[in-house]
């Protein structure tokens, strides 16, 4: 693969992109609702962007997340996630991770494609239950992080994508805590694992900083 | 091609590998853009505060301005979630053609605003295997915001094409103007060259080198003032811009005796007859390219001033100095400019004009502008130019337009089938380039102003099993 010659525009871009993934960047400042602006619109654009990126991240490991590797959707031995919806799974149901992920992604996609929930025309108001729906979406997206970090982080490392995933998680964490969109309780699973670090000595950024 | 380091080897299907590369690249770009956008947002806020301070507004007025500003920012957030597509525009007319697609006058259905839409065929661009080029330059270009560069509003893509929505310049392009007129007067030439000097300087100040200044890329706005067309898209794609295209040519003197022996009138006629074809071909023309650009030894921003010299020659003489029957011959003449750059005695021009052309078209070490743009501006050819206000004053040739969608300054082009998927798909089976779509992944671009949007949400790329 080709390297970029220092001094060229592409090299500059490459450097810039790399730098923005490094911890030097103040992502925390970027998630605060700018004064005077609409909270719903702010949340909406973030939710859609997070969905797209987390979806992509899961896409890179989904070949390795199968019914046999992950017969139950979980985040380590302590946390098991059950799926529930209004159609097929009226009761919380334990499912293999890939199946759970598919349902999860499909469900979110339907929500954000729904103009009544995520209006895209200027002037159309958001529904009253918009924030509760977003909280649910974010809570479910967080579980994707949990599963990827605890069960598939070795793949992420092999792909050399840990900076990418860490940055995305960091951004996500700042966003949901800044605007109080996820229960602290939900965030627990990653707290534990990140503290211990994995066998490569890679912990997520958040506890490295402490 | 991706901006990522090499992925370590472990058993992965090619498909997965490509997905990994795409994901990494997308995330890198996302975070790079996020930071830029955050900074820009803060800058806009600061600018607002500064303006209000300067205007000495009362607190109450400030409050109102601030909330109006916040509302605009929120609208932009909406815009980011929407996606314009081909369906949102009515295609009115083909107004230009290039090597990789065409330019159409379009109207946004909901607002009625008129734009120019540049359509680039992905397959054609992939064949040239230079797409990386496009992206990198485009990413930076998007930040350029200048009176002298055509404004870009929005871009999107579908399976077949990339689409750029930009401001429509009803005055047409310089190439069309030059083909309509035999030559320009010295006064007209002074005006266009002076404005182009400022335009080129403005992109130099942003840190770009254009490398492909030619009359086709000089557009005229509704008042007849110059703007550079969106650049960096296809530059370097055309064969004529690549040294290897000429590799097996020796640098012996040109041999198109036929052409050499024509008088300037015949030359101009021949040139004009071939001109359109040259503009549409993927080979392109090396007529305006500085000799050092072809050499492996490197070049700098001064190469753009050479191109301007060639254009100035063409304006006054009626054809560019190195024009020939074939790009290869032209290339030879450019490389041998010391012998081939001559002025036909039957088309007299002023000494000042001749002198400036020779100051533009010379070794770059000696070229005017080497010590800065002031050196160009103070050249005696530009005597009397009001550099500060040239853009506000009447243009040398006023443009007459009857309406915002008047296309009378453009040539007629037959309607094409570029927008009809089937027509194109037959020649390029979709499978050929579908897998490479990630190359264009961060192509879409939205500008903070102008368009209000409606339409469908993005499509997602999660692989289905
Ligand atoms: N914004 C615009 N408004 C009006 N006309 C335009 C605009 N952009 C392009 N055109 C017309 O379309 C023609 C072709 O456009 P352009 O030169 O950008 O395409 P191209 O030839 O494919 O690109 P390149 O210059 O890289 O070869 C121009 O010469 C001009 O006549």
UniProtKB/TrEMBL annotation, chain B:
Stored SUPFAM superfamilies: Protein kinase-like (PK-like) (SSF56112)
Pfam families linked: Pkinase, Pkinase_C
PANTHER family attached to this UniProt entry: CHROMOSOME UNDETERMINED SCAFFOLD_135, WHOLE GENOME SHOTGUN SEQUENCE, MYOTONIC DYSTROPHY S/T KINASE-RELATED
Organism this protein belongs to: Engystomops pustulosus
Main location: cytoplasm
Chain sites annotated for binding ATP: 118
Required cofactor names: Mg(2+)
EC annotation from Swiss-Prot or TrEMBL: 2.7.11.1
One CC-aspect GO term: cytoplasm
GO molecular function list: ATP binding; metal ion binding; protein serine/threonine kinase activity
Catalytic activity from the UniProt record: L-seryl-[protein] + ATP = O-phospho-L-seryl-[protein] + ADP + H(+); L-threonyl-[protein] + ATP = O-phospho-L-threonyl-[protein] + ADP + H(+)
Family listed: Belongs to the protein kinase superfamily. AGC Ser/Thr protein kinase family.
Limits of the Protein kinase domain: 89-382
Localization (cell): Cytoplasm
Domain AGC-kinase C-terminal, first and last residues per copy: 383-455
Name used for this protein in its record: non-specific serine/threonine protein kinase
Keywords carried by this UniProt record: Acetylation, ATP-binding, Cytoplasm, Kinase, Magnesium, Metal-binding, Nucleotide-binding, Phosphoprotein, Serine/threonine-protein kinase, Transferase
CDD domains per UniProt: MobB_NDR1
